[in-house]
Amino acid sequence: MKTGCIILAGGAGKRMKSERPKVLCEVLKKPMIGWVLDAAEAFGFDTTGVVTGFRRELTEEYVASRGGNISLFFQPEQKGTGDAVKQAVELIKSVDRVCVLCGDAPFIDEETLRGAFKYHEENHAKATVISAEISCPAGYGRIIRDGGIFKAIREQKDCSPEELEICEVNSGAYWFDSGALLDALPRLTDNNAGGEFYLTDCVEIIGENSPVCAYKSKREQIVLGANSRKALLELNETARLMVIDKLLDDGVSFISTDGIIISPEVKIGCDTTILPNTVILGKTVIGKSCEIGANSHIENCVIGDNVVLNNVQAYSATVENNVKIGPFAQLRPGTIIRRGVKIGDFVEIKNSDIGENTAVAHLTYLGDSDVGRGVNFGCGCVTANYDGINKYRTEIGSHAFIGCNTNLIAPVKIGENATTAAGSTITKEVPPNSLAVERGQMKVIENWQKNFERKKK
Ligand code: UD1
Ligand code: CA
After folding, report:
1. Taking the model in full, what pTM does it have?
2. CA 203/CA 184 separation, integer angstroms
């Protein structure tokens, strides 16, 4: 049996007051539609499509940036969720069962989709709506039952005062038999309080002649959607706590969760502690027994075990075991920090490989550099890697000693065990075991102050 998925993403999101499509509004720095696409990918549909509309180019650009084989459909006018599904008739025709999802309800998950699919098949239903009971049902379509038997979905605007009291709501996710959905779509009208073609009415239309049902999920967050910035903030907070909850189960410690934001894809080993105001994003992996934070921002990094990152910004960098970095250090993309390295305050490292047990203690910039083992950088060293046109690499052999305030003008090579004298500007290769001094001779002028005072008089 072939299954397809249609994700509705055409709405403008007027209530969000955004110039971008609502589905691109982010929860934990990931567009809401990204969460929904992740759930669809985890389910493994035979085909998945996205219906775009308002500022389609932005939604299309995001979908393309994720890769994968996603079909795109376009809804020229935002005339409602039913009208949106109509645009994907070709997809519906190509499969036996269709799952429709809302691009603005990010917490739908694989488990719920599977549970609902099984329920749909076991009940020989032609349409199954996924619902859940929530404490604040305002804004959602209500699930109308009669003696426990599912009857219809009623939009908030069309509800009677009694129906408004119902707490079981429509998640906006459904399973349909393709044939039944294709028959029902042309019968939709916009004869309702919203003046739109409601997809929810398809369930009622199909129900006239065939069995339809509601699959009630125990996970209430699966229904949560965001139509406004306030709701988006609430989704972010829900997601933030969901991720932290899972990490606690994995053996990660938090002294306080204040200001801690971690993407759902992030993996963290046991006995690691995350300190306040730390943001960990993307596909970051952190090992065991680390201390990350306070005030750190880690994005798409691979961090080993026993690593301390205190007030560190790190982007697309790799840090091996037993490394200590910070405070106030930045690792930029392409950086590898090998075992046992120590990096101190006000150090920036870009696209460089820093060998085992090297120390870069203070006020230093290393860019496009290959540094060996056990190298010591004094305070204030700089690799001048850019001449305004091209970038060049600096190579430093193991156990070299780079004196304070050394400028290394790339391309340049420092041999193993070599030393550069403090304040030197190194433009030529320094052979192994040698000392390079590049300074003017120091002159001492005796009694200079006395002469100066005399002249002034
Ligand atoms: C919809 C449901 C409601 C449910 C809620 C769950 C309908 C009529 N109502 O209401 O029962 O409780 O979702 O979150 O379906 N969209 C389009 N084209 C359109 C209109 C919407 O693509 O013309 C997309 C939106 O971008 C959004 C999704 O469909 O991703 C849902 O639309 P929205 O307007 O947010 O519906 P709700 O009012 O939230
Ligand atoms: Ca919505």
Report:
1. 0.91
2. 8
